[in-house]
Design brief:
Elements (H helix, E strand, L loop, with lengths): L2 H12 L12 H20 L11 H15 L4 H4 L24 H12 L13 H11 L2 E2 L7 H13 L4 E3 L16 E4 L2 E13 L5 E9 L3 E6 H10 L4 E3 L18 E10 L4 H4 L5 E7 L3 H4 L14 E10 L3 H11 L9 E2 L5 E2 L4 E3 L2 H13 L6 E3 L4 E3 L7
Helix pairs in contact: 2-3, 6-8
Length: about 400
């Protein structure tokens, strides 16, 4: 038989050749190989073997633990060596690990389970580092404040300022200029639904990352306190979606003839005097004023005054205006009306349809008292005063007291 015939015969027989038997591996061996391949993919993507350390990504920590285990389990070297094109098994002795690295794969995955809802590593979305966990523990680890009585007046005053609008809250975010160092003694924040007061800032210390830090004493409105680091409070405020900074009463221009470029004009306080011939109005004309707040132009606001019972169905003249910035108009108007509530004019006016209407924004208050009230709103002291209609002046006692 010729060589050509032999070659043809060999090719024909090859069609009937038995397929090469696949190596049968146990489920555990398949799992070991799959785990090793994940480590190899990490090395391909990062150009280095995974490393231990709480500052590392949790996935890298998991791979580092697994690699250490595989290096120490010689019974798997025959299985993995043919796949080890990166020389991972022949690397140096395993690096001593932190307590977190003492966990096996299953324990680490169990630790992550709550964060992802699954122990499947491909489904993990976000896992807190040990540093973040310690910060959260510091926030949560509060004790009863034994001397809360001395802080309670501060919390009451801040709450009153928030209610009146003389203080506001702002999100605690980096892009608003609130940087890590911008936490000082005497400042108020909202954290976890509680007002938090920084009662004391300790001596500066150096954090592991080289940044400045300090130990704080923070008092909370639920009569608890915590001894935590400034960085921990800062991180907690960033993490809390409802975390807020409470502004100082004098923070930012409230009323001014000039405003900074970044200030947003919020509206105008206006003081009006009525030109009505109604005897009930005319006899008090010099001290009877309508006080309101508008976000538009005052001229347009009063254009149809004589058709509006709010303006006593008569034309009005503008006596004074105060431009304001970065203020909640509604809260400010409520504050002013509450301040002068005892001097509100009690009068009913018939509108053009014959309905009786009771205007609520007219007060028997001299203009100089209104000017004084505006100044006290500007300096944040207005909550310590009320209006005495008999004396026609502001008196130094908290609003609402008898």
């Amino acid at each position: 038989m010729s060589d050509l015939d032999l070659n043809d015969l060999r090719n024909e027989l090859a069609d009937f050749a038995q397929p090469e038997k696949k190596v049968q591996r146990s489920a555990k061996e398949e799992r070991v190989i799959a785990g090793f391949e994940e480590i190899q993919r990490f090395v391909d993507q990062n150009g280095r073997a995974p490393q231990h350390g709480e500052q590392r990504d949790i996935f890298e920590r998991l791979y580092a633990v697994r690699l250490d285990r595989l290096r120490g389990l010689c019974e798997y070297h025959d299985l993995l060596t043919p796949l080890d094109h990166q020389g991972l098994l022949a690397a140096a002795e395993p690096t001593p690990s932190a307590p977190a690295e003492d966990m096996d794969d299953d324990e680490l995955l169990a630790e992550l389970d709550g964060a992802a809802g699954s122990s499947d590593i491909t489904q993990l979305r976000h896992v807190r580092s040990a540093t973040e966990k310690r910060a959260a523990e510091e926030i949560a680890n509060r004790e009863r404040c034994e001397d809360f009585d001395q802080f309670k007046p501060l919390f009451d005053a801040v709450q009153a300022d928030l209610d009146s609008g003389t203080r506001t809250t702002r999100p605690f975010v980096k892009d608003s200029g609130f940087l890590k160092a911008d936490i000082g003694q005497g400042q108020f924040f909202i954290l976890g639904g509680q007002i938090a007061y920084v009662a004391n800032v300790g001596e500066p210390i150096k954090a592991p990352n080289g940044e400045a830090d300090a130990r704080l004493r923070v008092i909370y409105s639920n009569e608890t306190e915590s001894d935590l680091l400034l960085r921990s409070l800062q991180r907690a405020l960033y993490k809390d979606e409802a975390g807020r900074r409470i502004t100082e009463p004098t923070a930012g221009p409230l009323f001014a003839s000039e405003n900074d470029e970044e200030d947003l004009a919020s509206g105008t306080i206006y003081v009006l005097r009525s030109k009505s011939d109604d005897p009930r109005v005319a006899q008090h004309r010099n001290v009877l004023h309508k006080i309101g707040v508008t976000g538009g132009q005052v001229d347009k606001r009063i254009a149809n005054a004589k058709l509006d019972p709010t303006f006593l169905m008569a034309d009005v003249e503008i006596i004074a205006t105060y431009e304001l910035f970065n203020i909640n108009r509604s809260k400010l108007e409520k504050l002013i009306h509450r301040l002068f509530g005892r001097a509100r004019l009690n009068i009913e006016i018939q509108d053009r349809f014959g309905h009786q209407v009771t205007p609520r924004e007219w007060f028997l208050v001299p203009l100089f008292v209104i000017d004084e009230a505006v100044e006290k709103i500007k300096d944040g002291s207005i909550t310590q005063f009320s209006y005495d209609p008999d004396a026609a002046k502001l008196v130094g006692r908290p609003m609402g007291s008898s």
